[in-house]
## 1
Amino acid sequence: MYRYILPYKWIFLFSVCLQHDSYEPMFQHLYCLYLKGLITMLPDKDGPSGGGPCSTQGSSGEDPSVSLFREYLRLKTVHPEPDYDAALRFLDRIAEELDLPMKKIELFPRRVLSIMTWEGTNPALKSILLNSHTDVVPVYQEHWKYDAFTAVKDAEGNIYGRGAQDMKSVTIQYIQAIRRLKAEGSQPVRTVHLMFVPDEEVGGHKGMETFVTHPEFQKLNIGFALDEGLASPGEAFTVFYGERNPWWITIHCPGNPGHGSRFVENTAAEKLRSIINSFMDFRETEKQRLNMSQCFTLGDVTTVNMTMVQGGVAYNVIPAEMEVSFDLRIPPTVNLQGFEKQIKLWCKEAGEGITYEFAQKHMNQNVTSTEESDPWWNAFSTTCKAMNMVLEKEIFPAATDSRFIRAVGIPAVGFSPMNRTPILLHDHNEFLNEQVFLSGIDVYQRLILALSSVPAFPDETNPFL
Ligand SMILES: CSCC[C@H](NC(C)=O)C(=O)O
Ligand SMILES: [Zn+2]
Ligand SMILES: [Zn+2]
């Protein structure tokens, strides 16, 4: 099939047309071809896609870092069938531009994790990991203002696309920060690894969960990791030093079957009702606890949500089994053994023969130190302070790949530099403003230098060198 090849500035023209609803027939036609993948965009002749060190403006008037971010947003790494090959090609190109080696590890068929490495002047020291996932969650396109994979920028500079916050922005910010540092002639003392991980959005089993047990992971000799956080609507930036443990549980309630016209004893539905009441009553107390305390955030309480119910075959047949599933998120301060005992008690109280099983049951409760005496946290927080950034420390309410990193004993901070931004991860019309995005590159530039310059600890060596 014939593909047209057009320069980048055409994307700009398309987006202008979209913003102003001026569907000129010619543009409309070209835009349709672009959406169908029949037009390929070529870099403008003013340089590589990522642009130079100083964020010079491309011929479209757009900062090249923004253009690169928008290009990455257009790759359809969306579940259930993410185009990971497109992401790998894109990242290979970046590695070439940055002149950094890239290692690829196929964890499972079609699940490749890649690592770009900027070697430090003292590679014997523990390294810094800049982690990001390449996949994104699906969209309900009918609820979006624009196509979720065209990266439209509106008149206010808001860039719309699935992954704009979670977390393609952060990937490009890491990359552009390193591009600038290299162009300035900086060199890190500690080695810096950029890791691009598949399948975070579907639980991380074919991604980070497996990779932390891989010999190649050990070889990286990681001392400290940065990974995704959340946007924050106010002036302050949120940083996450731990996560709640996800427990996904299904409870099976067996019972006596019979005719729907009778009072059958000991039915599955009666047991199901008792189970639902126990979980939902607990939900209410935790909700009250959150609402009553000024100093609690969502990460400090247990959330309970009934997410699935199954059972029954016909209106007039009392079912022999019914089941209910809950999504529980448990803060690191909760005694997990005690909590499971409570679940067992609720099951016993509900009646005979009730069993349960877990689809997710994370037990590790490691948190990362935020003591000023901790050298990693100290480097992170003093750098932010020097940029007049206010940090709010929290427990991440959901689950990210950081949980696997912390579980193997490596400190990790969840941080996405997106203040003055509504939290829109996994939501319709996910966007990030280009100015907020660009400020984040400055933030990482300083953070990468500071973290990679944390002085050597006593006896710190890399056993793999
Ligand atoms: C437990 S695996 C699923 C991971 C997913 N992460 C996010 C950030 O949405 C979640 O918390 O549901
Ligand atoms: Zn994410
Ligand atoms: Zn996500």
## 2
Amino acid sequence: MARIGVVGAGYVGLTTAACFARLGHTVVCADVDEAKVAALGRAEVGAHEPGLAELVGEGLRDGRLRFVLGNAAALSDVDFVFLCVPTPTGPDGAADLTAVHAVLREARDAVPPGCVLVIKSTVPAGTTERVAELVGRSDVQVVSNPEFLREGHAVDDFLRPQRVVVGAEAEEAARRVVALYEGTGAPALVTRSASAELVKYASNCFLAMKLSYVNSLAELCEQVGADIADVTEGMRLDDRIGASFLEPGPGWGGSCFPKDTRALLSTAEDAHVDFPLLRATIGTNGHQAHRVVAMVRDAVGPLPLDGARLGLLGLTFKAGTDDLRDSPALAVAGLLAEEGARLTGYDPCVSADCGPVRVLESPEAVARDADGLVVLTEWPEFAELDWPNLAALMTAPVIVDTRNLLPADKVTEAGFHLVSLGRPA
Ligand SMILES: NC(=O)c1ccc[n+]([C@@H]2O[C@H](COP(=O)([O-])OP(=O)(O)OC[C@H]3O[C@@H](n4cnc5c(N)ncnc54)[C@H](O)[C@@H]3O)[C@@H](O)[C@H]2O)c1
Ligand SMILES: O=c1ccn([C@@H]2O[C@H](COP(=O)(O)OP(=O)(O)O[C@H]3O[C@H](CO)[C@@H](O)[C@H](O)[C@H]3O)[C@@H](O)[C@H]2O)c(=O)[nH]1
């Protein structure tokens, strides 16, 4: 079993640390956020991730996992260091590698001979090879090992991944990293580091492209009398297309797709490769929030949006997470507020007000005296609401379902005017 340092205790770093401890390794997880490190030492996990708090508690009790403030302890007396720090969008759209570079500068003088530095943060093709030169130690290898976990499924995705991808110029170092995942049973792919880095962007951008395609199809369905649910069901039956990532919505969001699509486009531009498909993928997504606002405007009309009281159901970027980063729900809220709408919202994982949205404690509180409701996140509980009761609380029972989640028959029976995406009027 190996000694592993993990730098960054966010969604990826904390999952990596807790899961490697579960797989039997000894892990030191470092972060610069003092409050976070203190809470993790008490097994208090801020993020809403099924199973993660339990694994952290187990690792702490067994002595295989500890949390430290500052990176020094994660960089000494370890065989591997996993870099799991943020790579946000920089001012020009490219990934901002400031945190990665900062950790590598610390690591350069601190890690023991034979240590493997593993870049798990999402970084542009070519980064690993370039930073290996920056580290400049012949006794230390730098390897790319992108992470594919989904928020809300982080533990499961880490312990049972569909693939482990490791990219390195030195194959022996790559094989050592692959061996760390032995307990997962996942197939491993070893490539050059630039290829591994690109697998990550290629996968996220492909999924985003699929979603933009479906969102445009939904818009087309509304114009030609087709139903997007039937169209995607027909598509799903074709193995070559695949069954997932075909649900239309208010646009794709979260901490990864928006920044990774922009970063890949920036990489392509730097490499003088025209990538119109990716530009269109991003552009189509930018259009979705405006499209939702137009649907809301039509649904509540003749009442103007200026002054309308609207209740938003769902604020996170998808169900199953408390993450609000780049949430399409908040993009829609921002545009509605610009038009003068007064917004309340309910989300099972959000309790603090978000920008223009006053967050209330229940769907009923949001429906009370509302001129319309908008479903923005596909929390399953929204499909089970007491529709007659909600209708009675509102000034007019109008609902726009941007996730096509609601049982149309029950909702309309309760007297609602229901508008869904991609459904004939
Ligand atoms: N969130 C996901 O679902 C996901 C999935 C796959 C890959 N990724 C990639 O993984 C990376 C991390 O993403 P995340 O969502 O876990 O980020 P996050 O914001 O949840 O966590 C990052 C953590 O790193 C810490 N940190 C920042 N600078 C540091 C430094 N210099 N030293 C030590 N700690 C530092 C922060 O305090 C924070 O706790 C990104 O490149 C992201 O694209 C994320
Ligand atoms: O049929 C679908 C599926 C997803 N979405 C939306 O697409 C976005 C992204 O969803 P998802 O991929 O589940 O979220 P993430 O947790 O951000 O995971 C993605 O981004 C991670 C960070 O890079 C990767 O590791 C994962 O493999 C990749 O799925 C969200 O806004 C979803 O609501 C839809 O609108 N319709």
